[in-house]
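User: We ran a pulldown and think these components assemble together. Before we commit to crystallization trials, I'd like a predicted model of the whole complex to look at. Sequences follow.
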Amino acid sequence: MSFLAVVRATLAKDLRLEWRSKDAINAMLFFSLLVVVIFSFAFEPTAEESRKIAGGLVWVAFLFAAIVVLNQTWARELRNHVLDAYRMSPASANSLFLAKAFGNFIFVIVLEALMTPLFIAFYRLGAIGPAWELLPIATLGTWALVVNGTFFAAISLRTRSREVMLPLLLFPISVPALLGMVNATTAVLTGEESARFWITLLVAYDVVFTIACLLLFETILEAE
Amino acid sequence: MPISDAPPIIIADGVIKQFGRFAALRGVNAEFAPGRLYVVLGDNGAGKTTLLRTIAGLAQPTRGTISVLGAKEIKTVCSQIGYMAHPSLLYDEMTGLENLRYFAGLYGIHNDAANFTCREAIISVKLDPDLNRPVGQYSQGMRQRMSLARALLNDPTLLLLDEPFSNVDFHSAQEMATLLGQMRDQGKTLLVVTHQPRLLESAADEFVWIDSGKIVDRTSKLRAGTQ
Amino acid sequence: MTYLYAAYIATWVIHGTYLAILVRKYSKIRREMESLKK
Amino acid sequence: MKRGFPILAIVTAVLLSFALYEALIGAPTERSMGDVQRIFYYHVPSAWTAFLLFFVNFGASIAYLVKRRPAADIVALTSAEVGVVFLTVNLVTGPIWARPVWGIWWTWDWRLTSTLVMWLIYVSYLLLRRFSSGGQAPLLAAALGVLGALCVPFVYFSIWFFRTQHPSPVIGGGGSLDPRMAHVLLINWAAFLCLAWLVCWTRYQLEVAKRQVEEAQSLESLLEGSR
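Assistant: Here's a predicted model for the assembly, 716 residues in total across the polymer chains.
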């Protein structure tokens, strides 16, 4: 019963269920579209200025989309009381955690991929700096949000007001990651500085917090 | 006390379980011998489900200890335990076979071995493995039997069943009861929490009565007048 | 100069409110202890 | 420790008043900012004391995760709570100091910003304790305590680099400190540490008493049940 086999099975199950029901996906896609449109009303910059604030704008929009996805992480497990069945099986808690984190990661990346062209269109964005760097920035940044988000979603399962708790716990701890994402993106868009420092910061942040979440998730799941 | 000389499969020693101020279990001392079918009775809130969850390792006792299959740490023996609870522990959006194949994966049974085991388990509870409807659309009787099939996947030596017959039609309940009896004959140990003990009157070895968090009586026969 | 005093006073106001909260909690517990003793 | 409490209280009172005198009168007046610079003697030691308390919280959280002793959990709760109080002092005195010197209430000075983020992290820690129900609150809080502490170096690095890229007015001007001023600063810090020790000690006893009362109440409902 290899660890990876369980991760793959759980991830495949989640994706199949998500694809089969589709209602969650459509709701979140529409939500992201709304966020982009509202942002473009709220901030109406000219092309030159937009490069400076676009980094912050895009990532706050992505943060909204991520929160909506993360709030749903354990919804299905709770509805069907399946966590007990999982805890009774010899499968390790971390395989469940990783499967859920990857599932969320794919979900948020899909939303981001659909929101980005809209942002580019609405703000006539073009990167002066090395545009290919935006890919690692997006991946590392999204993973930073998702790994902590999945962990805190599991914690807020056990608290009273679940939906409020997740952002309350996630945002303060994600400030360094948010700073990293926003500044790296702005650096690439404006091309004034190199995003090198921010990318290394994101890598360090991801490594430290992924390990910490893996070490602590077992105790959270078993906290009866 | 247990007749057979084999070591007891479950030993509960002074188990107290408190949720904040409410004490669900107030000191349970009991031993359960292997290869027997125990029926756990008591009215609502007596602590039957809490006791079962504590034995299953899903709840930690506030005080006292529980050892199951000779181990204090449940993770080491959980592959030999089958657990079934009232809400069906199955994904409503998936069909029975898909559910079982996923959970078989958790127990390390993969691909063709899984296919065979899952179909076997479904057939043993008298359901059609190729039924293409998601579990959410099953009748309550079918859901409970599919949930029982899930608990049988890893061929457990110890079966913990919480209200397996609840709102199941009489006919399917009868079939499940005989099935539980057969499993006991194959040497499995069963602990069944239920409000309908009469279904297991012939099959059960011992009836365990629980009242306000304590085991108050253990009889081999059902007392007259129980529902 | 008034900013200087404002800062120092603010410090002791914050510590004071926290200690007040602790005292209120303490009296609540004392009352519960009494009711338990009966 | 009962005996030690009054002694500690007296020592704290004496130290605090001496430190107050030194800060307001004893220390030399800073040339460029004048007397308003004296806020520095309360602003900086509060932050240092808070960081120390958060470090205690980190240690206690790990100790609780490893050994699950309630004492470690109470220490974690106490240090976080008192730490947030001291950090609030720092975050209030900061703007009061910035106002006369730069005419603005809030500067995104990297030290002030990092302490603000730290404040947010530990307030969310306290909120988690309030929102989670009795049983597993310590466990969840301990996990958050560890993650929060791991985040601190990242907060400092990211905001420090962020500020060096876009510099803004820096509180206290840094540079070499007149030894006389450094002396007064250390006295104040010592006084604050004693105050923190005193408050933590009281809060600890309060929490112990609170849990004893809760324990007694649940035992009472235990006995009531079986009477």
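The CA atoms of residues 62 and 146 of chain D lie 7 Å apart. That may be worth checking against your pulldown data before setting up trials.

User: Thanks, that helps.
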